[in-house]
Amino acid sequence: MALTTAETTPALVRDLDFGPAVALSCRECGARYDLGPSFACTECFGPLEIAYEFPKVTREQIAAGPANIWRYRSLLPVPADVTDKPNMAPGWTKLVKADNLARELGLRSLHVKDDSGNPTHSFKDRVVAIAVEAARNFGFHTLSCSSTGNLAGAVTAAAARAGLDACVFIPADLEQAKIVMASVYGGRLVGIDGTYDDVNRFCSELIGDELGDKWGFVNVNLRPYYAEGSKTLAYEIAEQLGWRLPDQIVIPVASGSQLTKIDKGFKELIALGLVEEKPYKIFAAQAEGCSPVSSAYKAGHDVIRPVKPDTIAKSLAIGNPADGPYVLDIARRTGGAVEDVTDAEIVEAIRLLARTEGVFAETAGGVTVGVLRKLAAEGRIDPDAETVVLNTGDGLKTLDAVADQARPAAVIRPSLDAFRTAFA
Amino acid sequence: MALTTAETTPALVRDLDFGPAVALSCRECGARYDLGPSFACTECFGPLEIAYEFPKVTREQIAAGPANIWRYRSLLPVPADVTDKPNMAPGWTKLVKADNLARELGLRSLHVKDDSGNPTHSFKDRVVAIAVEAARNFGFHTLSCSSTGNLAGAVTAAAARAGLDACVFIPADLEQAKIVMASVYGGRLVGIDGTYDDVNRFCSELIGDELGDKWGFVNVNLRPYYAEGSKTLAYEIAEQLGWRLPDQIVIPVASGSQLTKIDKGFKELIALGLVEEKPYKIFAAQAEGCSPVSSAYKAGHDVIRPVKPDTIAKSLAIGNPADGPYVLDIARRTGGAVEDVTDAEIVEAIRLLARTEGVFAETAGGVTVGVLRKLAAEGRIDPDAETVVLNTGDGLKTLDAVADQARPAAVIRPSLDAFRTAFA
């Protein structure tokens, strides 16, 4: 294997502290590189990911840690003193025991991993927190990203706390809540006339330009670090289940990165002896209006054909998902599936989750719960197996999805007679 | 002292389990009553509150509890097995070390207690969780409330999870996010043509009518139980500071209940030997457009003159605050103060907190941070003392307050030239 030096300078390398991370490694050809702000293999153009030498770690050590993702810091590419630095300290969100929803779907044991409890109310706080440490390590002064909305808010908030500049890029037609959230923390919010894929391409250009010098694009040149943040979802689910893997899990797919990292996290827990080895099935969920991975799965293809998104699930509206092929692999290998639901089914699922469990999900949560419901109705998941479904965002950011249906039953004068008349 | 029986039936009394709570006690005359769905003293019309016989409890026992308010269940009017019941399990929100904001305000040590991390993103989840247990104890089938918005969402969500019906009442002119959130969880949302005080009066009528039979109005007939939930803010702040009381704390005032209960919580911790006794100053914060308590404080009065609210801080817009006189007492007794800020100062403070700490507060958080800023600028708080400021809600619910100012810096085509032109 090649051990080539990335674009990091010797001065930078000297001060790097990524904890247990020891190298970047190509997911395709296995080539290894020094830790640096690189994301693609120079030999085969495959994606780079973090290679570790993990210390011995026990359940007790983890449980004694803080109530956030840093309880797993010895399994993440961050320095041991990350807890002392100003960051958003995301994670350790609730694993909600969803007995009411389980009953409606005919399942025996169901939990909702509710990441709306994160500081900016989406799972993106997890990945950004790792990217911030990478940006500090590499001496970057500006944090940036292409975003479908949630990420932009997570980046600008984290940059504010960390004392970094921020410049973030979104499609100009996003929900108002996401636009406000992406700009209220300061930094520079730039709307792009185009889709998320246009925004993404633009950021790739910017990174090669002097305009983007010393910028950490969390989901481009910091992507190998950033993506590891999603492993913490796997760690938390297992720990919150009592150090046990679920039998079945339903995960949303935008780029597909989160799903691959949850699978990686489960495998690490087994390898480290923190949970017992057992089979688990991973189900991937997309919106019909942006379902390139689901389409490939159903057609039996290995290659993803890009689509132009048209769905209310904007946080999943990535028409050309980078990790799509890996999602197909994992769904097939674990005995899961990839499925999609319509916008109407998404809205129904949001309301179902809200009225059964008091969890108000973003459209992405409507996608996972909708797919779970579909799989259960069609007998494609085991009703007796321990099941987890992810809600990765917050209904307050996608109000329009339900605003037509979520209204007062009546507006009345403040009198008993008026109440009687309205509801008699 | 009178020990009279409230309207509870013997059958109800037999099955009641309120943990360490032993009676209701009049705050004014000290008359004691059996635990029941009562809220006013029949002797003097004073408000009733919970009287306890606390068990011996240690820091270690509490720390071994769950990461939510039930870690303090032995200090709350709930059964010991409350953790096994379906509820929202709120609390244990972040105490954010706010070094950036402290620097801007010239303070040495500042923390933000950020209750936007609760399940429905406001502190109301705390109080409602206690009310749900009271409703279960009393055999009520419907959970209800008058609300300025946050409470309605907290009640309908909690009712959904607990399997209770819900019927909640709000002023019809609330923010869209709060209306959606109050109806998405199911139950019945009723808009009232009028102010919060009109809604409140209507609920008091309803409770005396057969229409409201077997209804638990969390902030009326369940108020003594409900209000105790705010004590958990005091417990958490002290525990998160390392079992130490802060020197100074800034708390928002709507009805004033939360402030009085935080003071009660601090005093209980001292009495139980869980923290060292020391003086602390409580500062109360209102919006200028609804500042009856601040006005009375400044005028040196003991009586609150009701006002008609006119402020963007709708969650604090209670013109006739029931616990206003107690707030005056506490601010004066502890050496604190009551202060108010304009709507413009509220917006500025929301943006200040967001850009320094990555915390996006509701207008109520703008009120507390704005008042803190004013007190600091005027030299009325000790810049070297340990200070805590509360954010009780979420900026996503009051987007309009900042929407004009939180916008993209530019909207451009996805090209480097366009970026250069926009930001050259």
UniProtKB/TrEMBL annotation, chains A, B:
Family: Belongs to the threonine synthase family.
Enzyme Commission numbers on file: 4.2.3.1
Modified residues (N6-(pyridoxal phosphate)lysine): K124
InterPro entries, A to Z: Ser/Thr_Dehydratase, Thr_synthase-like, TrpB-like_PALP, TrpB-like_PALP_sf
Cofactor(s) it depends on: pyridoxal 5'-phosphate
The name this protein goes by in its record: Threonine synthase
Keyword Zinc recorded: no
Organism: Planomonospora venezuelensis
Family matches, as CDD domains: Thr-synth_1
One of the protein's GO biological processes: L-threonine catabolic process
Keyword annotations: Lyase, Pyridoxal phosphate
GO molecular function: L-serine ammonia-lyase activity; threonine deaminase activity; threonine synthase activity
Name of the top EC class for this enzyme: lyase
Superkingdom per UniProt: Bacteria
Residues in Tryptophan synthase beta chain-like PALP domain copies: 89-393
Key word Zinc present: no
